[in-house]
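Forwarding the complex inputs:
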Amino acid sequence: MAVLAPEVRSAAPRWLIRHETLLAAILVVALAILGLFNERFLTIDNLLNQGRLMTEVGLLALPMTFIIITGGIDLSVGSIVGLCAIMLGYSWKNLGFPLPLAIAFAIGVGGVAGFVNGLLITRVRVPPLIMTIATLALYRGLAEGISQARSVRNYPEWFFFTGQGEWLGVPVQLWILLVGIIVAGIALDRTTFGRTLYAIGNNETAARFSGLPVDRAKLVVYTLSGLAAGLSAWVLVSRVTTTRSDMGSGYELDVIAAVVLGGTSIFGGVGTIWGTVVGLVMIQLLKNGLALTGVKGDATIMVIGAVLIVSTLIASSLHGRREVAG
Amino acid sequence: MSAIVVSRLRPGEGGALRLFASQEALLAFAIIGIAILVGFYNPRFLATRNLADIVLGNAYISVAAIGMSMVIVSGNIDISVGSLIGVLATISGSLAVAGVPIILVWLTPLVVGILVMMLQGAVIAYLRIPAIVVTLGMLSILKGGLISVTGGRWITDLPQSFHLADIELFGILPMPVLIMVAATILAALWMRYSASGRAIYATGGNAEAARLCGVSPQRTVVMVFALHGLFAGIAALLFATQLKVIQSTVPPNLELTVITAAVVGGVSILGGIGTVVGSTLAAVLIAEIASALVFINVSPYWIHAVQGALILVTVVADILRRRRRQVGG
Amino acid sequence: MKQSMKHRMVKTAALVILGVAMAGGSAVAADKWDGGDDLPTSPLACDAGPAAAAAAKPYDGGQTTGAPNKAGKPITLVDVPKLIGIGYFNATSKGMRDAAKEIGNVKVTTDGPTEAKIDEQIKFIDNYITRGVDGILFAANDPVAIAPVLKKALSKGIHVVGYDANSQPDARQWFVNQAQFNGIAKAMVDAMAKEAGEDKGFAIVTSTFTTPNQARWIAEMSTYAAKCHPKLKWLETVEAQEDNVLSFNQATTLINKYGDKLSGLFGMTSVATPASAEAVTKAGQCGKLAVVGLATPNAMKPYVNGGCVKSVVLWNPVDLGYAATHVIRAVVDGKLKPGATSVDAGKLGKLNVINGSEILLGSPFIFTKDNIKDFDF
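Prediction (whole assembly, three chains):
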């Protein structure tokens, strides 16, 4: 994108902390208001349930934060989820893998899919937007072709633990998400890897000339995105007890909305995992709260769209950042 | 990314002409080549009816891709166009059923399209919100709004005069083709030879340099989106007037197809390069491939995979070609 | 020039890959049109007789836990169809509202996803469970995937009744079936054989290969045709999602591809059928190419009145929604219990229980030129 001499940003500047805090404050206010309207909204039961439902998108949002920080994007995540879901079922039923192996295989397929994205993005220099639009179609097509539109069902009981079970009262997949958040947060904030990502997003050429392993870092984040999609697919299949080739379709927009809402700039160089989490929670609880209050599906979609634009507007004016149009 | 900006070719230069020509030539070659290949397998593919149907049924995508190309050349993107077309089609149909004069029925979607897109353009240019965020938000607002307002009722009972797409000028030239070709030629000429047209390339290539040359990037972006809205309105008309029923829902994946047409047509997502002739040809190619796959009996389960692979191959080939040119040129 | 040579190489490679893919793809091309869901089929008898009553199956529906007794009291229901925004579910919703008004102490809202996605539908149902409704009416996008959330509803004392598209039996109490799969298959194939000819070729335009109802109908159609109209030749099945323009383009492609070999088109959804009829009209094949399908009357009026389409097979979706509402009211009032053989459904009279926990609306309804003007949905 055409930007002249962007300021070099450190990993966690002051104003960024302000953006997340402001967003968190908006979130708290919104929750309080919605909670007033419906007493079932702010119950532990409901909140934990929402945590369960937002895991699939949440797992994808973590590496997406990395990717967007580097100035890239990955629109194929939804299709990779579908492909991994199909591979899970296919390898178990048609190839005869034992189920645990099938799960690992499916996640591995996700990693490969992400790796292919990263490879063509770094070696051939295909712009991420184009590359992932193409793989969005390709991976979805592979899922449809391999599955021949057949679902795989009748999994053993233990398989449903991941998607429907609880451990210490908290849904299992939520634990997985929490672990993911912590690991991702530490990686981004405290490791060289994380700092490399910010550097790439700020000024890729300068990062390259500074000797940072730019291509390797990019390859890693796209592969991580694929792996996260595989993990997400496992949780999804476990939750709904079947596989379908249309699983995950549309996820990419939900994920990007959460990441962008959380303060990560689409231009790169800026963003935190904490922000993504707040964005994720905000969208999920907003949808839930509105539905509980009696707002119908179509109106809820409109509200989310408006919230996205308005929050970015607020955040953007706070920064007073010098961005050139386009 | 920034290092490449310097060596990018500007439109109007000899080298650039060759660059543009080769992508369009490649597409034209592909269109003809595929037609011949499939024709061997099933001669019915080459029947005039079939070829005409391919173009007529998808002319609206070409028109929408014109506007999208301009947006992408200017360095932005728009994913709300599919929802907008759904909304404009519904507005047009509702007015027709309500007995509004046909001219107004056809003009209103154009005006609404321009206004909605201009709004987005202004937010992007002046409020500095990234295009993907604004158009993502607008997509949701339009989609939800459409269902809210219409309750999902289909529009039937359209008056006969509504069907713009069925009109054949002088008895032989179908309107959709006429509009598609005319819009492409006009837009291509305008972008190449008019100052405001070239301002789009400038803004997309290097906005700061453009500003220093006296081009206002903000005004250019708003103008580009306004034009995009106009083309979206025309596309919506072609889309709506084809059939006797208007589904008041958003056509699935339309924005993706339009973006694909623009990108496969040679418009670079980095901004600053591409022509609308390419995107029109690409839209025709995509439609042709969809039909060809049915004709040659590709198992329906694999159709999307083949389409995706095709996009990938085209894009990789295009990138490789560009890199060659930059390194060698 | 070096560039164009490399670029030509890439282009050649691409075409070769494409060629291989297509050749490979055609090798994999489905040469049977069995709908693909691997479930057993049970074709009806070939003659025009009523279906022999199947042996009564024991009740196999699910049960609520701890449902409050609301017999005779006002109840709120939510209807979560496959998607909102298509004529068919607008019609079922209307039927529900009519029934609610008639019964008097029922309030029903229709809410659902804007696309036919099971994941979205699950979230809608989940929210209504949290909100606390008395009953859920649903038409499932996927019979297995929807089961966990429906069972959750049952466990919270919420009544669950399905219509149009079933779930696993133990995830709901009752399912109002518009018509038996094999009954619809028989009606469609018989109509096609009559209108197109016994030994002609036909093609199918469906939504997607993974939509359960459509897959079942196609499966039943294939076994019934093999049994009773063996000379009918299946040519191809294409997908068109639930999109009007895509359905039109696909139907047009089929017409162009097969030319005279194609004598009939089946439209498997209320979107595919009018679009196919339009394609036939635009191609000037009205009267030469039969269109048989499932559709709502309003969308088909121009074609039926114009003589392009002779019969539209459906059931009355307004009646379907109406019946479903009466059924759930009867369940709440304790008038419909497991093991019952029939239920009272207002102006529809007594409806029979079949297959253990399904309630049959009746036989498929055929809209023709004579009666289509009487309907407005």
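Strands of chain B lie at 168-169, 173-174.
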